[in-house]
Amino acid sequence: MNLANGLTLTRIFLIPIYLLFFYSTLEKRIVYAGIVLIVSGITDMLDGYVARKYNMVTKLGTVLDPIADKLTTFAVLASFTSYELISPWILIVLGIKELALIVGGGILYCSDDKKVIPANKFGKVATVSFYIAIISVILSLHQTAINTLFYITIFFHLLAFLNYLSIFKGVMADKDEA
């Protein structure tokens, strides 16, 4: 296990810590949970940077990174929805998108050549927009600002989804030709 993969695993281990803080009875539980998310976001940026800079890109890391992203996304959206901090439709739209990516990624990974589509600029922009929208909730910004940031997040997530769908179709077409 290299450093980049260790950082990705750290993000996965931060999810239950986030949930413990979020659902605790602490007075500033949302702030503490938010700090854990910020650490997770920084770790997300670091794992990719370290992997690329020090040539630590591995198949395991390429698989674990989106899993960590999706688990974090689901945990945050479900917890925010459960306390009515965001509208349930946000969880539904982003949840369906994430499930579709999991299914598509699983199909590619379970194929003969164990193909994995790495994160790209569309997915990274979607992730950054997600963290910004989440931070707006943690900071208790005006509801109009929060809603606007989530609309932007959904736009970027759907754009990323369409990009990944295009790549998926290309990979599947190449398989059919082979």
Measured by DSSP, the beta-strand proportion falls in: under 5%
- Indicate the overall shape: globular
Low-confidence stretches: none
Major sheet: size, sense and barrel closure?
Answer: none
Helix content: over 70%
Taking all Cα atoms into account, the compactness measure Rg is 17 Å
Mean pLDDT: 91
Record field, number of beta strands: 0
- How many distinct helices? 6
- From the N-terminal CA to the C-terminal CA, the straight-line distance is 34 Å
| CATH-defined topology | Four Helix Bundle (Hemerythrin (Met), subunit A)
CATH class: Mainly Alpha
CATH superfamily: CDP-alcohol phosphotransferase transmembrane (TM) domain
Class per helix and strand makeup:
mainly alpha
Domain count: 1
CATH architect. name: Up-down Bundle
Provide the succession of SSEs: HHHHHH
InterPro entries: CDP-alcohol_PTase-I, CDP-OH_P_trans, CDP-OH_PTrfase_TM_dom, CDP_ALCOHOL_P_TRANSF_CS, Phosphatidylglycerol_P_synth
GO molecular function: CDP-diacylglycerol-glycerol-3-phosphate 3-phosphatidyltransferase activity
GO cellular component, one term: membrane
Pathway: Phospholipid metabolism; phosphatidylglycerol biosynthesis; phosphatidylglycerol from CDP-diacylglycerol: step 1/2
